[in-house]
Amino acid sequence: MKNTPFTEKHIALGAKMAPFAGYNMPISYAGINEEHLTVRKSAGVFDVSHMGEFIIKGDKALDLIQYATTNDASKLKKGKIQYSVMPNDNGGIVDDLLVYCLEENKVYMLVVNAANIEKDWNRLNELNKNFNAELINISDKTCLLAVQGPEATRLLQKHTEMDLLNMPYYSFDKGVFAGVENVLISATGYTGAGGVEIYFEDKEGHADKIWDLILNEGIKPIGLGARDTLRLEMGYCLYGNDINDETSPIEAGLGWVTKFTKDFPSKAIFEKQKAEGVKRKLVGFELVERGISRKDYPIVNAAGEKIGVVTSGTQLPGIQKSVGMGYVQTEYSALGSEIFISIREKPVKAVVVKMPFS
Predict the structure, then answer these.
(1) Computed from CA positions of residues 334, 338, 36, 6, in that sequence, does the dihedral angle turn out positive or negative?
(2) DSSP 344
(3) Order of strands, edge to edge, in the sheet holding 107-112?
(4) Is pLDDT at 319 greater than 90 in this prediction?
(5) Can you give the pLDDT at residue 324?
(6) Span 152-180, mean pLDDT?
(7) 3-class DSSP state of 301
(8) Domain span at residue 124?
(9) Structural domains of the chain, count
(10) Is residue 71 part of a domain?
(11) Residue 99 within any structural domain of the chain
(12) Beta partners for 341?
């Protein structure tokens, strides 16, 4: 297993550690429920240094990104970020990712999921044969801390001249943070609680310095367990659960990042799905009977016929609702539709609801 620059910090703090995407990662410290509520009410810090970062530069950088992803990256100005997906050739999703515009038309950074770093890198290099952009994988030398919660920017602002308090959603700035130069701070969030992401190079003790400073502000360390419940509460997809190589962005409700004004792999498949409709859709649901849904549980109708599958599920802290996401046959996807989650072969009633769940 790989370690991040913060692994020893997590162990010293008593974190429950477990393998995740090939890394030894903290799952929880004080407990998932408590950590979830800490982020919703104040602020917490996540070590997400296992994520992947690729630099794409040169005269053909934008052309490569435009073909490799479904969203329209030509709209990006310097300092702006875009959510997008990388489609495969068969109507599925290689990965979902973020595109950072470092220099318009010239230099971009892609932030990809940890488990997909090698797959994404190989895919980009394969597509790049027709573009010859310069690709640099900076994943191993990049630290990434996500400080999330309504108090996050207030607590961090004193450590930088970058304007964190007024940073627009899906934008970023570069500058000095905590005396460390060339730090990139962005506002995208995977928790829906506000806050920032801090990218910096792993050298000269920077990791220890920034981690200790964040904790000295009273910001609590948070594990990946609460990160999962927080993103699910917001209805955000998790690659490997809610989207994968066999799900299309149209099925997953990601048509808004699928722009047909340009060319990309599987464009014809997605256009047909948008025009004719899809046979299944990703929905959010809330259990109305006692039970907790989990990934891969069958979804059935009132007659007991299988109509879909759960992709994510949990008992949400705070609001104490048992919720989930899953793919169902389109005729059962309307808000208010009654469905049943098969929990240990017992049908438990649920209803399709609008996300986010709270």
Answers:
(1) negative
(2) T
(3) 81-87, 93-103, 107-112, 52-57, 134-137
(4) no
(5) 98
(6) 98
(7) coil
(8) 53-139
(9) 1
(10) yes
(11) yes
(12) 299, 348
